[in-house]
Amino acid sequence: MGMKFPFAESFVTTKLDSVINWSRKFSLFQYPFVTACCGMEFMAVYGPHYDGARFGAEIPRFTPRQADLLFVVGTVNHKLAPILKRVYEQMADPKWVIAFGACASSGGFYQNYAAVAGIDRVIPVDVYIAGCPPRPEAVLEGIIQLQALIQDKGPRGIAGLNPRQTAEPLVLGREVPDSKPG
What we know:
The chain is an alpha/beta fold. The protein contains five helices and four strands, in the order αβαβαβαβα.
């Protein structure tokens, strides 16, 4: 005599992490940080021809407290970098960043003292989209790559159920206290 389970054939088990990450990847609330000419291509992605809404990243939030995806679109100079960092810090956890275009990724063709040579010097970046300006197809591919990253690895840092392992940043000029008693 065997034991009968009422849901044996129709019950599917999975990890809670993968279910949460699946829901996160299709509900990206974006904050567009548009500073330059790439903004036109960014707007084209969410028009009717390319329809970025089908990837779950449609409605832009114009307050960082309601967003979890930061699109940095265009050039960031050194005077604007602290503002970008503040916007990133105000976003809800877990949060992701896409560097949109050559200027946000590497400083672009600006070889001067004012432009930041890549926003990864200011905030962590998850996906880089190349181009000056990038084509809307490349932007959609970047969103798909971010969704795959969210599904496979989950959020970065200490937030979330399955955080990506990151090393603690080295803070120069500050001693690490000794854990041994006196």
